[in-house]
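Extended Data, record SDR family NAD(P)-dependent oxidoreductase
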Amino acid sequence: MPLSAYDLTGRSAFVTGAASGIGRASAVLLAEAGATVHCADRDETGLRRTYEVITR
């Protein structure tokens, strides 16, 4: 079952490694499901890109 089938409104998630790959994909899916997503990674540029994807 796809994650988007879940309503995560009002829930929080913390994703490490969110600048690329599986971490970015997880952060995007969680945000699409309504969660407030907190992201961390050493790659600041990649994190900014993830932020742009989530907030677009």
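Summary. The chain has a mean pLDDT of 94.
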